[in-house]
Amino acid sequence: MAYRFRLDALLRLQRSLETQQEQRLLATLGAVRSIESRIEALDANRCLRKREVLSHIETDGTVAELHFLLVVEHLAAKKRNELLGELTRAEERRKVQTELYREAHRNTEILASLDAEQRNEYNAVLARRDQQLSDELFLMRKRFEAGD
C-alpha cells in the first residue's frame, strides 16, 4: 500500500492559494515600481524643462515666459503630489499583500511539514514491517533447516 497524505487535497489547494497570493504581491510590487518610475520621469522632465526655460529667459525672455514657467512648475508639483499619494496607497497595498502572502506561505509550510512527518512515519513503519518479515523468514528457514 503506497503512502497517501490524507490532507493532500488541502495541501494542493493551499499551494494554489500561496501561488495566487504571490502573483498578487508581484502585481502590487509592479504597481509600486511603475509609480516610482513615473515620479522619477516627472522629476527629470521638470528639471530639464526648467533649465531650458531659464536659459532661454536669461538671454531674451519675457515676464510672461517666467509666469508660464511658474504655472507649469506649480502643475508639475501638483502632479508629483498626486503621484506621491498614489505611491503611499500602493505601498500600503503592498504591505497588506506581503502579509497575506506570508500567511499563505506559513500555512503551506505547516501542511508540507505535516506531510513530510507523516511520510517519514509511514516509511519507518514500512521499514519495521519489512525487517519483521525478514526476521520471520530467517527464523522459518532456520527451523526448516534444523528439522532436516
Write up what this structure looks like:
- By secondary structure, the chain is an all-alpha fold.
- It has one domain (8-113): Helix Hairpins (Orthogonal Bundle), CATH 1.10.287.
- It contains 2 helices and no strands.
- Helix 1 (8-60) runs antiparallel to helix 2 (63-147).
- It starts with 7 loop residues before the first helix and ends with a helix.
- The model has no long low-confidence stretch (mean pLDDT 92).
Q: Runs with pLDDT <50, length 5+?
A: none
Quaternary form: single chain
Overall number of structural domains: 1
The ordered H/E elements are HH
The shape is: rod-shaped
What is the percent of helical residues? over 70%
Q: CATH topology, which one?
A: Helix Hairpins
- Which CATH class applies here? Mainly Alpha
What is the tally of helical segments?
2
Could you tell me the mean pLDDT? 92
List its salient traits.
148 residues, mainly alpha, Helix Hairpins
Layout: helices, strands, pairs:
Layout: H1 8-60, H2 63-147
Helix pairs in contact: 1-2
What's the short story on this structure?
This protein has helices spanning 8-60, 63-147. With 148 residues, the chain is mostly helical.
